Each structure stands twice: as C-alpha cells, then as structure tokens.
User: What shape does this take?
Amino acid sequence: MYYEIHGQGDPLLFLHGGGGMGADWQFLGRDWPFQLITPDLPEHGHSTGRPGPWTHRAAAQDVLTLLDRLHIPKIKAIGISMGGNTLLHMATSQPDRIEAMVVVSATSYFGREARKFMREFSLDTLPEAQRKFTLERHPGGEAQARAIFERAKAFADVYDDMNFTPPLLGTIRARTLIVHGDHDPLYPIEIGVEMYRAIPRSELWVIPNGGHGPVFGEMAPEFVKTATKFLRLA
Assistant: This one.
C-alpha cells in the first residue's frame, strides 16, 4: 500500500474515492492543520491489489494494517465515497481505532440507484476530459484504469460487502460527521439520514443541491473549515 505523509500536527487519515488516489486531498486545499496520512487504496494509484474480489472490508483491513505499521493506535479520519465506505468498515471492525471521522457521500448499503449506475459504469462513457484525466493520473495507464472500473461495475451484484444494519452501525464509537448532498444520484439523502439515526455520536450536514462528493470546487474551503472544527472537538 503506497502512502504519503504531509504537514504537521495530529495525524489525520484521508481516504479517497473510487478511481482516485491519496493525492486527491490537495483538491480540497493545502492548508490542513493536521499531519495528513494519504494512502492509495488497493489497486488505485501506486498501490497494488490483493487476490480475490475487491471489497471495502478488505481495503479497511489493509488500512488498519498500515496504521499498525505506523504505530498509530487511534486516529481521526476523513473518507470520501469509497473511502467513506471503507471507514465504516474500520469503525465497526475495530471501534476503538477511530476517534472521530467525517464520511462524505458514503453509504451503509448499495440501493437501486447505485446498482443501476454501476451496471452502466464505463471508462468509455466518461467525458473526454475526465477520461483523459483518469488515464493520466494512474501509473498503470489504461489497463489499471479499466481494472478499477471493472471492479466498480462488479459491485452491482455484490451484497455481502456494504450491508450495514442499524444495530451494526450502532457499535461505532467514533464521533461522526455525515456529509451528504441532497441530490446525490448514487446514494439518496435518505441513506444519510438513516446512518445519522443509527450511529450514536453522529451529526448530519446536508449540502443543498449537492451531488455525489459535493465538497470539492467552491465548497472546498467551507468543508475544510467545518471538518477541521468537528475533528478538533474530539
């Protein structure tokens, strides 16, 4: 698992979204008051994969192993989309390891909307600029990018990875900020509300007119400010 460490201060784990890489933290701004630990999740960026199907559960175990090797027993974290899903697995499998977390556009299960999107998901259907950007940022080029997209497509028929029940979410001990766009085409806002009701020490921030991953672009400064304030309270 490839990772980088940036900045000074208390450690903060940043887990990127599907098709991304650890360096995506820079799209939110470079002035974080933390020491950022930014891994490339399995098969993304410079990280290799593991035998068998790609699962968020396995990715969570890989990240926990990384924290072990860095001698970090407990940490604060931010996860976006796939990274947020991975964080949910970390926070339920080893609840004492996550002190506080911000999960953006994450989900407790894959619903009808997400599975429809996954079945239609393809590198070739991306707008040309986005397709070019995706190909350029992965060192394995087109072969690596296509493998990532095929892994994502396969989730349309997977039911034993993202299947968190309210009682299981209720075991999470981390203070949790759930960030959800109210126009997310993959994970409807109702899922964010359900997670908020199930996770004991949680807060919900609904971003009006926000889609999937609504914290980039013009929303980035407000997100960094809000996430920093929340994480520092823990």
Q: What stands out?
A: The two ends are 28 Å apart (CA to CA). Residues 3-111+162-233 form a domain with the Rossmann fold fold (CATH 3.40.50.1820). The helical segments are 56-69, 82-93, 112-120, 128-137, 141-154, 166-169, 189-198, 220-233.
